[in-house]
């Protein structure tokens, strides 16, 4: 049976696809401001018909609608975006160690945000600058390495160089800025969902959705693209065009996400690994499963951060703390053939 | 499906490939032989548009396909590489399915027709039982068969195979070549194979092409051109051809 | 020739042998301890620093200490500065115009120009405790004592710093004057506020450092002015820091009566503003937002200015308890405080103008 998993696999697939929804509902009830499940239920009802539960305090509605809901949606979007990005780029680069920041997106975004904060001040949200320069960085990488035609090593190396370049530019910006202006930048760089608002989501969510849909549609194609360029070409694929499409889509979603929440590492690297371990390498499964699992992981991580204390550990630090040991464990278990 | 190469050339660093005129017979097996570095693989790759030829024409049934889009080209020419690096551990079935890429738009999923084509290809090479296995589990002989199955799924009239018997043990070597013959006879495919083994080439090919230093030195039916002087000039050493029960053996 | 029996030899050698060993040990220990002729200072990071009894050449990378030095009249002992006081401080040019000639020794990324430091040859270096490992590294490589000190939001620590710098520069008298003045002012404020039961102290949330969710875990001006910092005694983000990060829901849970926003930023640079917070839909159920009690306050500006923090405490006292401070002319009082510290007139007025203070409150 080609392309169909076993019965047992099917149950797991359904479970993991449904998991984000389940976690989402549970997460709605987690937070510093304690709202009982009953209170939560009444609040949801009162959102649809305001007159039904007048005893529900305004604060409940505000927390649910303006703090938890956007934050959880952001977590889902970011988790899915980074995981699918990572999985797609891993296929494209034929290397499961690749992550979504490989093309210099994170350093470009950091620089763009810093530039905006220092020179445009309050007038511009740093997200716009971050977004623009994330694209600039990727554009530079592609331009220099010759339009992703071949030699992925050169693409990787160029990515490293461009990353270093933008980091240097960032230091230059820091030089001209007062540390107090830069406080906002460093806070953002750590990667945090804490200030998620509908305004931010209104811009990023559609962009992430577009990119995700694109990559979802391309999911079978990624299998073919994960062959060597020569093989892919002989199979009838316009390699250059389709690679650019994938890179454009991943850049779009990574930049859109990073510009709001900062740099959240390791998710796009680890999630596809686990998915391949469980479901095999076929990207028809890997892509949607990565989205679901990425969303789940971000929700769980955010639940832990929000539920444990009043203090806010930036989620970027959290994922690094958890991600690095997992990465090392994976390295140890690795054989020649990756997953 | 007649295949004709005209004025094909390709340069890379110090090496130049130049083939002025060559014809490949339809539904027949043509073996391309020659010493290392003769340009056999390069030639094959140029025909398969895996490498971009700097100039030349490739006429298939009178039509120059050099400028075709790779999608259309893939429906005409299939290419079986010598080796495949397993980075991702696909299942055999999914791997063969990739051969259908020329028939599936980038944003679409394989259809039932595509799945059937892949299944049939696996059956033809004798690996129907292997659909659920991962390619890392296969022996190199089996992996070769899977690569051939993938090219088969492409349903192209022309098949290019780069050293399909290298690194295989004698039993698997024979299996693969018999499969190639089956492809030519049953499926009417025009097949170009590069082979390092002269004996295999003589045994299985309908037509042979000798290459040296990027050029075609001789081409024709084995019983016509497979002579000791030719071998000596191509390989630079004296060889003896022995005839044993109708089979040709080469001694060095 | 003498026949010495082994046991008596041992009895003779051992006690006599031990003495030179003990003497050697004593010499080694006292040699190792030699950098500290005085017991030394225990700085904010808990490090024992061997501060010299007197310092003629001081390198201050801690603006709080720099300002104290200038207030004491010891500005000429400064051999170098950090980038912040020269580039971003609102008042430095006024209180110490001679500072324009001083070299800048550190960069915003907190790297130090070590060669320059060596050439400047300071007797002691002050830096901020937020720099963590850097003080040790500088001490090790340059051999100059580095003290990481900051007030950490507390008046007693601030006054200790004034006394420390006074002792260091031989200006104990002037230091004592300023400390007594400071204490008098604080006492005046606490007396005017009077004893307050906890319920009457307004619950205050401080949104500092350009962020809604970053807040100082200790800010004494709020306490002195008769208010309660709701984030008091939470864990800071790291050792040597005074701030921590909370989440939005926590702020809603606390439901502060007053929100104070970090106002020392130049008006064009403020990321978090009174208008912004007042119109933030997520906070609309918070008491402070509903009753329109969202204000600016000065806040840290790379730690404190001793005059500035006094003025701020007065400002806050009037904000929290307007009925008790009705007759207070803040600008006049502020100028007087600054004049006492820096011996120049109208400094506070300049600060108020720089920060667009007229927009702050209608008080």
The largest interface is: A-B, 36 and 48 residues
Number of domains of chain A: 1
Q: Assembly type of the shown chains?
A: heterotrimer
Q: How far is the N terminus from the C terminus of chain A?
A: 21 Å
Overall geometric form of chain B: globular
State the share of residues found in helices of chain A, binned by percent: over 70%
The residue ranges of chain A in which pLDDT falls below 50 over 5 or more consecutive positions are none
Please list the strands of the largest sheet of chain B in the order they lie side by side. 6-7-8-3-9-10
Q: In DSSP terms, counting alpha (H) and pi (I) runs of 4 or more, how many helices of chain A?
A: 14
Largest sheet of chain B: 6 strands, mixed
DSSP, total strands of chain B: 12
Helices and strands of chain A, in order, run as HHHHHHHHHHHHHH
Q: CATH topology of chain A, what is it called?
A: ABC transporter involved in vitamin B12 uptake, BtuC
Estimated structural class of chain B: alpha/beta
What is the CATH class of chain A?
Mainly Alpha
Report on the architecture of this protein.
The complex is a heterotrimer of chains A (about 350), B (about 250) and C (about 375). Chain A has about 350 residues and is mainly α. The radius of gyration of chain A is 21 Å and the shape is globular. With about 250 residues, chain B is an alpha/beta fold. Chain B has a domain of about 180 residues: P-loop containing nucleotide triphosphate hydrolases (Rossmann fold), CATH 3.40.50. Chain B is built from nine helices and twelve strands. In chain B, the strands form three sheets. Chain B has a six-stranded mixed beta sheet with strand order 6-7-8-3-9-10, sandwiched between helices. In chain B, strands 2-1-4-5 form a four-stranded antiparallel beta sheet, with helices on one face. A two-stranded antiparallel sheet of chain B has the order 11-12. Chain C has two domains: about 110 residues, Rossmann fold (3-Layer(aba) Sandwich), CATH 3.40.50.1980; about 160 residues, Rossmann fold. Chain C contains 15 helices and twelve strands. Classes of the chains: A mainly alpha (about 350), B alpha/beta (about 250), C alpha/beta (about 375). At the A-C interface, helix 3, helix 6 and helix 7 of A face helix 10 of C.
């Amino acid at each position: 049976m080609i392309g169909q998993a076993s019965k047992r696999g099917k149950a797991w697939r359904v479970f993991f696809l449904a998991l984000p929804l389940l976690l989402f509902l549970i997460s709605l009830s987690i937070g510093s401001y304690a709202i009982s499940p009953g209170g939560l239920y009444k609040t949801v009802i009162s959102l649809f018909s305001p007159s039904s539960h007048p005893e529900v305090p305004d604060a409940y509605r505000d927390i649910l609608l303006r703090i938890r809901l956007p934050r959880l949606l952001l977590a889902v979007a970011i988790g899915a975006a980074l995981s699918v990005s990572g999985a797609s780029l891993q296929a494209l680069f034929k290397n499961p160690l690749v992550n979504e920041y490989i093309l210099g997106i994170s350093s470009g975004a950091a620089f763009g945000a810093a530039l905006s904060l220092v020179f445009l001040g309050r007038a511009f949200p740093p997200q716009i600058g971050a977004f623009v320069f994330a694209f600039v960085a990727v554009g530079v990488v592609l331009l220099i390495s010759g339009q992703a035609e071949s030699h992925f090593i050169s693409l990787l190396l160029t990515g490293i160089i461009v990353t270093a370049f933008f980091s240097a530019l960032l230091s230059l910006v820091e030089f001209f800025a007062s540390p107090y202006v830069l406080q906002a930048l460093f806070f953002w760089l750590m990667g945090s969902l804490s200030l998620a608002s509908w305004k931010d989501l209104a811009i990023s969510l559609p962009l992430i959705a577009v990119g995700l849909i694109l990559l979802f549609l391309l999911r079978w194609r990624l299998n073919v693209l994960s062959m060597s360029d020569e093989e892919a070409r002989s199979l009838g694929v316009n390699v250059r065009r389709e690679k650019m499409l994938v890179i454009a889509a991943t850049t779009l979603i990574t930049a859109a996400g990073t510009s709001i929440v900062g740099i959240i590492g390791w998710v796009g690297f680890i999630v596809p690994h686990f998915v391949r371990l469980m479901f095999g390498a076929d990207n028809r499964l890997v892509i949607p499963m990565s989205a679901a699992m990425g969303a789940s992981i971000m929700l769980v991580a955010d639940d832990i951060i929000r539920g444990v204390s009043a203090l806010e550990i930036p989620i970027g630090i959290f994922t690094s703390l958890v991600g690095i040991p997992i990465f090392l464990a994976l390295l140890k278990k690795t054989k020649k053939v990756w997953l | 499906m007649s295949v004709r190469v005209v004025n094909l050339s390709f340069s890379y660093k110090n090496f130049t490939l130049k083939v002025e005129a060559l014809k490949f017979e339809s539904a027949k097996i043509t073996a391309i032989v020659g010493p290392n570095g003769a340009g056999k693989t390069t030639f094959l790759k140029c025909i398969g548009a895996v490498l971009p030829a700097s100039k030349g024409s490739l006429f298939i049934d009178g039509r120059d396909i050099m400028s075709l889009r790779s999608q259309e080209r893939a429906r005409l020419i299939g290419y079986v590489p010598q080796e495949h690096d397993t980075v991702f551990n696909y299942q055999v079935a999914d791997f063969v399915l990739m051969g259908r890429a020329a028939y599936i738009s980038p944003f679409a999923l394989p259809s039932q027709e595509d799945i059937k084509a892949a299944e049939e290809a696996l059956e033809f090479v004798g690996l129907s039982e292997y659909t659920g296995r991962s390619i890392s589990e296969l022996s190199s002989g089996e992996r070769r068969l899977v690569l051939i199955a993938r090219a088969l799924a492409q349903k192209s009239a022309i098949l290019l195979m780069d050293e399909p018997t290298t690194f295989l043990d004698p039993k698997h070597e024979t299996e693969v070549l018999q499969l190639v013959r089956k492809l030519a006879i049953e499926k009417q495919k025009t097949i170009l194979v590069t082979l390092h083994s002269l004996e295999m080439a003589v045994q299985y090919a309908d037509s042979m092409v000798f290459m040296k230093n990027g050029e075609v030195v001789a081409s024709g039916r084995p019983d016509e051109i497979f002579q000791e002087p030719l071998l000596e000039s191509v390989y630079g050493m004296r060889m003896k051809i022995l005839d044993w029960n109708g089979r040709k053996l080469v001694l060095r | 020739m003498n026949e010495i029996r082994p046991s008596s030899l041992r009895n003779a050698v051992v006690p006599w042998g031990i003495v030179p060993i003990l003497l050697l040990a004593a010499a080694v220990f006292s040699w190792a301890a030699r950098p500290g002729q005085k017991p030394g200072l225990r700085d904010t990071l808990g490090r024992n620093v061997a501060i010299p009894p007197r310092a003629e050449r001081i390198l201050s990378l801690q603006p709080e200490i720099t300002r104290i030095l200038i207030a004491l009249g010891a500005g000429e002992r400064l051999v170098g500065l950090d980038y912040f006081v020269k580039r971003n401080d609102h008042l430095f040019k006024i209180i110490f115009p001679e500072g324009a000639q001083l070299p800048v020794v550190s960069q915003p990324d907190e790297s130090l120009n070590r060669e320059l430091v060596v050439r400047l040859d300071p007797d002691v270096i002050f830096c901020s405790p937020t720099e963590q490992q850097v003080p040790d590294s500088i001490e090790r490589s340059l051999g100059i004592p580095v003290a990481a000190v900051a007030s950490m939001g507390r008046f007693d620590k601030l006054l200790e710093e004034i006394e420390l710098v006074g002792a260091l520069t031989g200006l104990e008298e002037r230091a004592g004057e300023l400390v007594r003045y400071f204490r008098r002012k604080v006492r005046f404020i606490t007396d005017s506020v009077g004893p307050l039961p906890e319920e009457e102290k307004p619950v205050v949330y401080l949104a500092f450092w350009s962020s809604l969710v970053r807040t100082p875990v200790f800010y004494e001006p709020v306490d002195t002015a008769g208010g309660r910092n709701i984030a008091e005694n939470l864990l800071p983000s790291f050792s040597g820091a005074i701030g921590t990060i909370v989440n939005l829901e926590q702020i809603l849970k606390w439901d502060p009566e007053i929100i104070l926003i970090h106002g020392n930023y130049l008006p064009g640079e403020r990321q978090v503003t009174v208008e912004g917070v007042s119109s933030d839909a997520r906070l609309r159920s918070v008491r402070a937002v509903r009753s329109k009690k969202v204000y600016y306050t000065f806040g840290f500006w790379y730690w404190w200015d001793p005059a500035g923090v006094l003025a701020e405490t007065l400002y806050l006292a009037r904000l929290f308890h307007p009925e008790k401070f009705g007759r207070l002319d803040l600008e006049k009082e502020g100028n007087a405080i600054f004049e006492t510290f820096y011996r120049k007139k109208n400094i506070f007025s300049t600060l108020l103008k720089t920060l667009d203070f007229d927009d702050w409150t209608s008080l």
